[in-house]
């Protein structure tokens, strides 16, 4: 069994029972919806208690439950051909250089982590048409290289 | 003169005068920093009063000022090889399918606009290491196709 | 079941019953033919009443009907290798820069939406060989970035 | 001199004199704006009388005038990274299969020409936001293969 | 059933009965061999009377016969890895610019159609080794853009 | 000096003197027009007497004449974005499999040479629009692999 | 049945019977090992008497035997990800320009055939570690273009 | 001035003065050689005191010194065509899946940071040929997603 | 049976029996964990005694045991989309040029072998978060080209 | 100065003085022609005494001489578009799998080195057309992974 086959099975069950992602996430709970849906779509791992809940909900076998608890080989085809996902890709393509300039000026040399980050979205009512509001925060990780004496950090990368 | 040559000139001046983006944005003002830096890096247009301010600040010619007011051919090379920008790309690649599922369930068929959107980031102090906090909102645009009678919307795409 | 398998099944039924797309669109009705055919080929969503009609017409199960009502992962392989589709691609490749220059001069900085747009084609008889006539209109979406005070639009992007 | 250098020169002059494309097209006239702008951007050929007018307008040398009359090596980088042009690309990517199905059913096996076609766009006022209206027509070219006796068409491709 | 599955079935039958393409083309007849073989390999459409003959020859079902009469999604993977096909690709890659220069000088701005064209090859005996002789002709299609008054051709593209 | 710079120089001279390729080929003569134009565009080598003639015609230096006599690094960017060249590419992409099947059946395993081949095109007047007529022939090269005893051909590849 | 399926079947049998390629090549014989192994892996054609021997050895059906006698669609995915094959690819990538310069100086304009060539490798014992010794020879094919009079070679390409 | 131009200048000076990287790193000091060489080649930032030392050593202007202190747009062309760098790429390509399995089993879901890591290499004498010995360590970053209550970590990702 | 199918079977068994890679490697033993896990994932060969142990452990057939002893077609899709593997790829992309400069200065022209190398990783406890510590060594292979007299090394590549 | 600029300068001098590669290699001598030509084309390093000879021959500066002694960033664009180089690429693409099977069976798991190898070609007269004869040998490098105890080779990879 591959992870893609498990995803297809889960989507078939969701369709048959006419469930929404909201209902599914409410049943499994504990972590953000992005994580739960991501795991069911094969991009994230569910920790054991949540994998158990998901297995109970979807009537999965013990082996399928373990697979939900495994770290998958992450990533999807790029560039995205789907318009909704492409718009995010375009934001990065067009605004990436400006974000880089501003974040590095504020934080020094480093990155905003895509591993230790949280993500939240909500509907923002607006008279000219509702908006999707997204909040995320990621830990800033300063670039570090250690000194000539192996293992002894000398200069940190962030300037005073 | 190409837009890339103008960007190189602006960066040379910034370096010579030892300015920060913060100082530059404070001088030009009026719109978000992302937009101002994006325009100076050749990805955005500055509206006329701001292009004038930028030209004064950098000592640009009238023709260069007009170029800042032109819509550039947007977009940068993908996939990004720079680690800071790549992390945003990775977020889209890994989380795109989950975002699609959740946004479509909440809003119906459509996209979050990458054109009518705002973006804001700030430092979020944290004891285990400061975080980059990002807030953005984009107008939701429902997919629309019109009815058999040309120009007469029949069914909207959003289900009741 | 994947969406591609549903498309293959629908095409098999169409072939067996010797139906034309015209007949199928007339049966399902309500929205433009492009939308109906696009949905049956796996690129669009059919709203519930139309998905029901399509399911009745093709004798689909309730689960298959629900799948027609789902938003698919859109997009097809590019560059198109099929000559008919390639000609449209070529129009964009050759004329894109001119369209960009003219539309931006008329409307300001922004895009013509590929989401809120309609499309109609018809045969245009011509003595030297009939022509395909296409009419489409898409909402113009001006580029917007908000001001330094978060959420407060300052300058719109369209110049006076 | 390359065609790209000529385009850069023309854009420099346009910027210096603060002309609009509308003004330029009105001066040169005779053919559609898309063609004139396309030629000045290096994707189209201007016929001799128009190349002469353009040369007079921009103060070009005789050699530069001849270059405007040459057929350029057409085509721009794909996929387009600029959002305005990408939206057209996306229309083809998402709707191509449906267009193919409908056009072939109406016209038989063949293509809509990207060579013998006209293109026109205009502003379509709309209370919820103006729309870009595009009309184009292209000659339908039926696929033809000739019979076993070389040069003797046997079956045409269009079915009765 | 997909077109690729039909092609595989046809090739299996050809192999079992030990037929040559020559024999198959002689049985189906009416159009050039390239078209018949192309259709059986899934790149062309067979008109109805020929699809019927092919179906009788290969013992195909009525549905399979209809599929042979459908326009396939054309095109194969590029660049070609097969040496025989690559040589044709190389001819275009190396000689394309010269062909473009010579054809445009003789015919004006336009293309040689890949849709309305015929193709014929034969063995040309030669003492130093036989040669493949190819003759093809394609309709020349002049580039046309219509005048400012919509639909009224002004200047044709071919210079006097 | 690079070959591309020499090509640009030659094109500048051709434009200044308002020559046609026909005139240039008539002056240089001796081999087919495709070869002469190909060499001047940087894809072919001119043999010494022809390189001398070309140098005299264009007023080139002795070093430039020698460069015309060198074998260039052949090949141009693929896929071709120019419509005229793309049509040839499309012919190979769509018809390649049929050509392969027919040529191999007639000649056995091997290729039609793209090295030892000739090419000729002419205008073919036609009431519905003139056609480009192309004739080419290439030596057939049978695939050969030699026997277990090194250098001793055992089985040829062409079946009796 | 596809050629890939036949290859998989042959490899399964080889594994079950614990045969080496040496044993297989000794049984089939007549041509070089590279050809026999290449054909069993789906990249080459076996002439009829050898296809018969291979079919007897592996217990293949008559149809499978015919498939071994067919010319396959040649070529494998590039760049090669397997280290052994990549090293050959790297040799071409790094040394290609030097080989081109030296071969063209010795032989004139043309290529070393990849069609009419033989290949042999053997173990070359060496005290610092054995070496793989490869000998190959390919027919040199001079570039030829024929003269203005169609079919009459004028200048050959090789200079005196 | 671009960063690539600064790199070229630095390499020219290094060549003229016949310096080794070892000498240069000893002069600048303070951090690991990889960092110093990386910065001089345009892939890393030098902190201010080191940029000053480098500027003194190479006789750079104040503006060039500031550029060395800027974070560059990182990344080089991939796949690497240079054999030395390709071997590292190959290690990742071949061993990546095993490293992923083993690291995730030991550390849980997450990554080894490419930002907070150190790298050291040295010559390891060996009788059969010296070896390159590499030691590196990178901080393990566990994947984190926060709970349904925004900002409140619920389950950590690492299983007990 | 393909190697990918064997990998899928092995992963299914590992999941069913709830084994860790550590347990599996301890059972098979003899070589490093990277090699054992790599072989079970289809990237490496297990020598016969280890393949036998693995077969016993997983209950594989004799044919499957032989497949584990075969050299697979190595390599995985690049660029890696999985974040853990991407970080290694990024290290090569960003630091490759510096590693090349330093290794070549120390060892002369050549490469660090990706074939004769060993790899070891371990957890390195750290108060700010544990680190992944990696040690590897690869044989340095100097670039060698032999002298004009075939087979007689003249200059070695390493300078005195 | 870049290496590409040095190559262009060397080619200009070679052209002006009308030298052949044979003459140049005879002057520089000591190593194989492939190496010398490769170095002058920017793909190889010349050891010091040879770089000195080359500098004297071409009248290069001391800095240019040092550059010839540097290891360049190797590799050229792939796939090769030049027909001569492509034929070598095609040999690898078509025959790679067979070479892999045969070499691994003879030598065990490993590669033939592209670093420690020699290459020699000569003209092989033949009545049907002369042939290019190539001999090369590369050291076989067995795949090695060391045992669980770090640095202690356990099983070699080559089976008895």
UniProtKB/TrEMBL annotation, chains A, B, C, D, E, F, G, H, I, J:
Keyword Repressor: no
InterPro entries from the UniProt entry: Cyanase, Cyanate_lyase_C, Cyanate_lyase_C_sf, CYNS_N, Lambda_DNA-bd_dom_sf
CDD domains xref list: Cyanase_C (cd00559)
Cyanate lyase C-terminal domain span: 74-146
Enzyme class: lyase
Tree of life domain: Bacteria
SMART domains: Cyanate_lyase
Record's catalysed reaction(s): cyanate + hydrogencarbonate + 3 H(+) = NH4(+) + 2 CO2
Active site: 87, 90, 113
Entry keywords, A to Z: Lyase
Pfam families linked: Cyanate_lyase (PF02560), CYNS_N (PF21291)
Its EC number(s): 4.2.1.104
Protein family: Belongs to the cyanase family.
Known role: Catalyzes the reaction of cyanate with bicarbonate to produce ammonia and carbon dioxide.
PANTHER family: CYANATE HYDRATASE
Cited NCBIfam families: cynS, PRK02866.1
Protein name as it appears in the record: Cyanate hydratase
Native species: Paracraurococcus ruber
């Amino acid at each position: 069994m591959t992870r893609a086959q498990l995803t297809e099975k889960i989507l078939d069950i969701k369709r048959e029972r006419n469930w929404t992602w909201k209902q599914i996430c409410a049943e499994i709970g504990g972590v953000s919806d992005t994580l739960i849906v991501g795991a069911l779509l094969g991009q994230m791992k569910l920790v054991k208690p949540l994998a158990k809940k998901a297995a109970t909900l979807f009537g999965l076998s013990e082996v399928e439950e373990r697979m939900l608890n495994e770290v998958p080989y992450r990533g999807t085809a790029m560039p995205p051909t789907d318009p909704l996902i492409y718009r995010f890709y375009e934001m990065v393509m067009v605004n990436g250089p400006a974000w880089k300039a501003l974040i590095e000026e504020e934080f020094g040399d480093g990155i905003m982590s895509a591993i230790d980050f949280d993500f939240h979205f909500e509907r923002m009512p607006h008279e000219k048409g509702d908006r999707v509001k997204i909040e995320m925060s990621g830990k800033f990780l300063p670039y570090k290289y250690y000194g000539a004496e192996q293992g002894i950090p000398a200069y940190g990368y962030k300037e005073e």
